[in-house]
TrEMBL record:
Residues 4-169 form the SCP domain. This is SCP-like protein. Residues 1-22 are annotated as: Disordered. Residues 1-14 have a biased composition (Basic and acidic residues). InterPro entries: CAP_dom, CAP_sf, CRISP-related. CDD domains: CAP_euk. It comes from Ancylostoma duodenale. Signal peptide: none annotated. SMART domains: SCP.
Length: 181
């Protein structure tokens, strides 16, 4: 992935996270998701030391970062050309496929982000805007939550399809009963 594609992915997430933070995101359950109280803007960090510190204290500092390790995980899944989630508990994945002659990965990353964000309007999270295990596990209407992301766009060789995989992680999900917005 190029830095431009990574930045587009971060920019799109910040755009949609901002809508949620301001209470402007449509929610299928309550009309609009309530304003977030502790949501932070995502940023790309170069220092691995800072990255490790952020990961260790993720559930406390509530920031989102671009993680090249997650990008590598997304790459491994995408190169299998299999439109399916991997069977791991280390991280989650958003998967999207587009059939197009388009080669502009920045635009593809933007379209994938728009599609994933539209799940809020389609499925909703409700008035509390709190990710809980109950919300996480509801069948066929899951909305992923993440504080670290990595994205990979892989052109399938046999046709015009591009498989887009975004690996995401939220260490807090495994340690907290309720996950903050």
């Amino acid at each position: 992935m190029t830095d431009e594609v990574r930045q587009k992915s971060l920019d799109m997430h910040n755009k949609y996270r901002s809508k949620v933070a301001k209470g402007e995101a449509k929610d299928a359950v309550s009309g609009y998701a309530p304003k977030a109280k502790k949501m932070r803007k995502m940023g790309q960090e170069d220092s691995r030391a800072i990255l490790r510190l952020c990961i260790e204290r993720l559930h406390q500092i509530l920031i989102t970062i671009y993680d090249c390790g997650l990008e590598t995980s997304a790459m491994q899944n995408a190169k299998s050309c299999n439109y399916a989630h991997t069977n791991t508990e280390e991280f989650g994945e958003n998967i999207w496929m587009i059939s197009t002659n388009q080669t502009d990965k920045v635009n593809i990353a933007e379209q994938a982000s728009q599609c994933w964000f539209s799940e809020l309007e389609k499925y909703g999270v409700g008035e509390e805007n709190m990710l809980t295990w109950k919300l996480w596990d509801r069948p066929n209407t899951q909305i992923g939550h993440y504080t670290q992301v990595g994205i990979l766009i892989h052109k399938l060789l046999n046709n015009n399809d591009s498989l887009v995989i975004q690996a995401r992680s939220d260490r807090a999900l495994h340690s907290d009963q309720n996950i903050r917005p």
